[in-house]
Amino acid sequence: MPDKKARALATGRSFTIGHVLSSQNKEELVSPITGDFIGGMTECCADFGYSLTLMIAQPDHEEQTFRKLRAEGAVDGVVLQLPRQDDPRIALMHEIGMPFIMHGRVENADLPYSWLDVNNSRAFQRATSFLLDLGHRRIGIINGDESVNFAVRRRSGYETALKEAGISLTPRFMSSGQMTEENGHEAVRNMLMRKERPTAFVVSSIMQAIGARRAIQEAGLQLGKDISVVAYDDDLSYLSNRQDIPLFTAVRSSVREAGRLVATMLIRQVESSTNPFENELLEAELVVGASTGVAVS
Question: Which residues of the chain form beta strands (DSSP E)?
């Protein structure tokens, strides 16, 4: 492959893609989910002869960061994550002419854009229906931050499954927040302290599920027997749920593979002037593990 500097001089491109993280989401900066996603992007970039540059932007200066990147030609395109409702970054990327792809998607966006997402609604509908089939009727949800679209869709899937089963929603069985072990522990502990407590939970990450397991053990209960848990599993490299009998029943989709696909799609967009926008919706698979069993009460 020709030297990167020579290719850059010949084409006017930097052969670098950017990934801008917001300092507002401090947990995301150290999250194993983010680490695996970046790992997948880095592997793909190496295959195509590109580099990946990571930047931290202050929330109030995010727009300036993107404009500077474009003006300086520092990157050929950017990967955006954690889309919000009516995400203003889509219009900004069109305005400045920056190729981009969204990891996630925005409902009813006014402008076309490339995205890759998991069918989060279907994943949580399936997880909740699985617990319903085991006889559970009091099912709690420990969700991610519901200011972000993926968590909104996960709650929607959970609610759809309950409504289809004729079960009324119980707000005290619903919690949302950062996808950390501490958050999972606190949310489940608080729900288990109630007189009428959930017999099962769907949770938005393996980290939260580990916290849920700690809360269940502290309450003198047994995971998979007294209380069931279905987790969303990003198939993390160093928090693996791939034992012969997985610790957690889970709906699984690899975030590392998502990183590879996102980078591939962005590089295709950078290198092609025709049909630049691609959309791909991935489906999570249900994997049965040791954390679920039939309802006992």
Answer: 16-22, 51-57, 77-81, 100-103, 114-118, 139-143, 174-176, 200-203, 228-233, 249-252, 279-282, 285-287
